[in-house]
Amino acid sequence: METEDQEKKQVLRAFSTELGLLSRCDGSATFTTGDTSVLAAVYGPAEVRVSKELIDKATVEVVYKPKVGMPGCSEKSQEKLIRNTCEAAILAALHPRSSISVVLQEVQNSGSLLACCINSSCLSLLDAAIPMKFYFSAVTCVIDSDDEVHLDPTKDQEEEAKAIVTFAFDNKDLNIITATSKGCFTQEQFQRCTALCREASKSVFEFVKESMNQKLSKLLQE
Fold it and tell me: For residues 121 and 114, is the Cβ–Cβ distance under 8 A?
């Protein structure tokens, strides 16, 4: 049986979101967990440059903008992970020879930034009514020096951790669609991280569902 301290480590920080913030895009959303916040905007389906045109599906692009300065190698790697996650979910074949772009702006990084980016991407795609096979959610966890797992870590916890792992799951079967890690851990620890993050993703999915229901209810009332 898990102790009270262990249970506390498995609680995600409070979520909040605001949909349709921006007027010059097809969909937008902020996702905030604790003090970490990301703003995402979706453009498309729209015209695409000939050099990037795909004849059988839409071209999916992700641009990540850090809070300060220009994006570096780590940000470009993050862009690729987020793009792969979005590509797995979007029904790109419905819009050949077009582009779907997701632009992410870091507002505040207090830990679990990648998961926050992925969750804001999903909400903005839903806000833009982009056809998707499923929607997705992401959860980050860390393994500390005592080999214990903490969900939704703060920036201080990430800096002190021996390993950081982020997963993205689909809402249908909770299958892993993205997994990335940094640091050293055993196979048993990885499996524990997977199980805890998968269970935690259910609360993110419930939050996303409630947020979209609230938006649709407001539209119907107008």
Answer: no
Cβ atoms within 10 Å of 195's Cβ, excluding its own: 11
Q: Which residues contact 26 (CB under 8 A, 6 or more apart)?
A: 42, 43, 44, 128, 129
In whole angstroms, give the CA distance from residue 141 to residue 59: 31
Cis check for the bond before 45: say yes or no (omega within 30 of 0). yes
* 157-216 pLDDT, tens digit each: 999 999 999 999 999 999 999 999 999 999 999 999 999 999 999 999 999 999 999 988
Is residue 98 left, alpha or beta, with left meaning phi > 0 and alpha meaning psi from -120 to 50?
beta
Task: Tell me phi and psi for residue 128, to 5 degrees.
Answer: -85, -5
